[in-house]
Amino acid sequence: MSSTTSTLNVDSKSVELAVKAGTIGPSVVDISKLYGQTGMFTYDPGFTSTAACESKITYIDGDEGILLYRGYPIEQLAEHGDFLETCYLLLYGELPTAAQKADFDYRVTRHTMVHDQMNRFFQGFRRDAHPMAIMVACVGALSAFYHDSTDISDPQQRMIASMRMIAKMPTLAAMAYKYSIGQPFVYPQNDLDYTSNFLRMCFAVPCEEYKVNPVLSRALDRIFILHADHEQNASTSTVRLAGSSGANPFACIAAGIACLWGPAHGGANEAALKMLEEIGTPDRIPHYIAKAKDKNDPFRLMGFGHRVYKNYDPRARIMQKTTHEVLNELGIKDDPLLDVAVELEQIALKDEYFVEKKLYPNIDFYSGITLKAMGFPTSMFTVLFALARTVGWIAQWSEMIEDPSQRIGRPRQLYIGSPKRDYVTVAQRG
Ligand code: SDX
What are the coiled-coil residue ranges (predicted)? Predict the structure, then answer.
């Protein structure tokens, strides 16, 4: 990696800062020694201009709407590959040979069951508990079950924990869904592929044979590919920060799930569908566009806008295509929610507010329509996002642990509170 220097003049001091260039994308100014040289911090709430790490996993060009996993365009991976192939790519850095893929599929498949005592955790929840609350709890609970792979300095144990995480998320997600509808848990069936297994655990019932629809399974598998990783987003940064203290990997993933749940992040797919349902019909769109533009109104168009993409989210395009594929397969000729979504997108993309602020549909805008059509309740949408993103969190966590320069993450602050003052007894407080 090449580097040059830049000079920063601050407080009559002049400091030389290294400028490092990556393979592609913006270079960075290395400010790691700035505090030592100037006694000052940088200030960047929300990290809009801050690179927190070096990474080889995912590259996003927000202006061009480009997303690469280990250099491969998302469009090509979604078109030609399957989710477990993408998992292999994100974890190992290369596409697998046929033999490597078969071995990886075999290894993941044989970790799909959870310890049977996990079932008891569900009994403590009310039936109407949000499945994301259940996932935060149950994934965190996994950290209590695997004492044979908690030495994160051992690459072998890190890989076992990674396999277990990728393999058990669908099982736990399906259990969370089954619990919420009062149906018995369905155990994994190892002769099914990863996503077909998940669909069966969600929608099969003991009293009859369940046949996986291959078109829906392929569509959901592609949706998982789209959600697998996304550079240093909020939940991935959460996993990295939690992992930087050496915490148990399952507990770190639980922290990532908690962060993803927020409506500004992964919770946007649930919020976007609720927004489309609230709008209801195309004639009510102008009212909501006006609300989204009103500075005094907290309402935002959910599924629109992105911290990095200032162009169309490439995943949203593939998502839109998948939506039509699923609706056709299910014989849903006209979905009122899709009508509202398509009309809303067309109006927003022509409105100068959205054009000027470069607000485009993101991955969450169409995903809810597809998942609802497949039979998932709105409350499960972010759980499916978490299921898919687990491999990204794990790959980024491993990259951080393996980084020789890795240290505990510990940001500083600009203090604007009270200067030092002496204690006043309650009698003196007046
Ligand atoms: C994901 O980071 C990732 O990579 C995330 C993700 C991933 O794969 O991990 O891609 C997944 O989280 C996608 C984003 C899902 N969230 C939503 O769809 C929620 C709606 N979107 C917004 O909340 C917002 O766009 C964010 C949170 C996504 C981005 O917020 P930023 O980068 O902090 O931008 P901002 O809030 O400063 O907005 C810039 C301007 C503001 O106006 P001004 O103060 O400059 O006048 O655009 C406006 C905002 O008010 N704006 C919107 C808007 N999003 C931004 N106005 C109306 N509707 C919106 N959706």
Answer: none
- The answer to whether the CB of 306 is under 6 A from ligand 1 is yes
Using the atom order of ligand 1, give the atom closest to the CA of residue 313.
Answer: 10
Q: Does any ligand 1 atom lie closer than 6 A to the CB of residue 142?
A: no
pLDDT digits (tens, 9 = 90+) for 202-214: 999 999 999 999 9
Spatial separation of the C-alpha atoms in residues 318 and 70, rounded to whole Å: 19
Is residue 264 in contact with ligand 1, taking CB distance under 6 Å? yes
Select which of 105, 229, 306, 335 is catalytic: 306
Q: Whose CA is nearest to atom 13 of ligand 1?
A: 265
Cα–ligand 1 centroid distance for 100 (angstroms): 39
> What does the pLDDT look like over 392-414, one tens digit per residue?
999 999 999 999 988 999 999 99
**What is d(CA 21, CA 38) in angstroms, rounded to the nearest whole number?**
24
Q: Judge whether 306 counts as a catalytic residue.
A: yes
pLDDT tens profile 114-125: 999 999 999 999
CA of 236 to the centre of ligand 1 (A): 17
pLDDT of residue 420: 97
Question: How far apart are alpha carbons 237 and 231 in whole angstroms?
Answer: 9
Give yes or no for residue 1 having a pLDDT over 70: no
Written in H, E and C, the secondary structure of 212-229 is CCHHHHHHHHHHHHHHCC
Residue 2: other Cβ atoms inside 10 A: 8
Contacts of 64 (CB under 8 A, 6+ apart): 311
Q: What is the DSSP letter of 238?
A: H
Query: What is the rounded distance in angstroms from the CA atom of residue 257 to the CA atom of residue 266?
Result: 9
Please say whether the beta carbons of 281 and 336 come within 8 A: yes
pLDDT at 148 over 80: no
List phi, psi (to 5°) of 86.
-65, -40
CA distance linking residue 325 with residue 337, whole number of Å: 15
Between the CA of 227 and the centroid of ligand 1 the distance, in Å, is: 17
Residue 167 burial class via C-beta count within 10 angstroms: exposed 0-12, middle 13-18, buried 19 and up: buried
Look at residues 166, 185, 177, 182 and name the one whose alpha carbon lies nearest to residue 118: 185
